[in-house]
Amino acid sequence: MKQNWNKESLLAAYPRFEAQPDFYLGRMADAEKGFADTFGKEAERFFSAPGRTEIGGNHTDHQHGCVLAAAVDLDIFGAAAKNDSRIIRIFSEGYGMEEISLDDLEVKKEEINTTASLIRGVASKITQMGYTLGGLDMYTVSNVLKGSGISSSAAYEVLVGTVINALYCENKLTPVEVAQIGQYAENVYFGKMSGLMDQTASSVGGVVAIDFRDNANPVVRKLDFDFTKAGYALCIIDSGAD
């Protein structure tokens, strides 16, 4: 791999990195190679957006309540670079390519419940906020289990928003704003009236307490808590059921 990985960043994203370095570096190498094979050039930047779990307060975000939530160390990892077009192209390993034009960001009924709708919705909201976007290419690998309740859709929205924020917004968007952008895409474009907990937990990371009294301005507080030291473990199980 040509990328010189920052160990501090890796440990922040993957607490088990030192115990399983070959696994994590292998995923990253797969994304880097997949990008080069798909787009015929080298990736410029690398991004991660985690799945999430609620510890307490499931769905109380809809009722302006309080939530305890946490990012998990299952994530969508993306290799990305700008391109010279007005097209966003994202290839997800195991799912294929999605393309949307930045010159056509209207809601499309035929895209409801599709990945393309999430990309278009995120790009549309950031454009509405006054940013000028350009094309980008990204190749993603994911171990966020789809339909498992750890918010693969929120992780995807946050990933797309984070990449656009880095490549075209000079990282001026806060993690909460990225979360709100993802929620907008899911509500308006994807057609699912989700609350804001999923996206906020993914975007902010770690263990968080969130007060949704004012949904437009949620109060987010990061908590320093170690499940292992307290004698607990959070287990994510692939039961094979929906």
Describe this protein's structure.
The chain is an alpha+beta fold and 242 residues long. It has one domain (7-222): Ribosomal Protein S5, domain 2 (2-Layer Sandwich), CATH 3.30.230. It has helices at 7-13, 21-39, 115-128, 152-168, 175-190, 197-204, and strands at residues 45-56, 66-82, 87-92, 96-101, 136-142, 207-211, 219-223. Strands 1, 2, 3, 4, 5, 6 and 7 form a seven-stranded mixed beta sheet that branches. β3 (87-92) and β4 form a beta hairpin. The chain is globular, with a radius of gyration of 17 Å. The model has no long low-confidence stretch (mean pLDDT 91).
| Average pLDDT rating | 91
Q: How would the global form be characterised?
A: globular
Please report the first level of CATH classification, the CATH class: Alpha Beta
- Rg, rounded, reads 17 Å
Instruction: Work out the helicity level.
Output: 25-40%
CATH topology: Ribosomal Protein S5, domain 2
Distance between the termini: 37 Å
Order of helices and strands: HHEEEEHEHHHEE
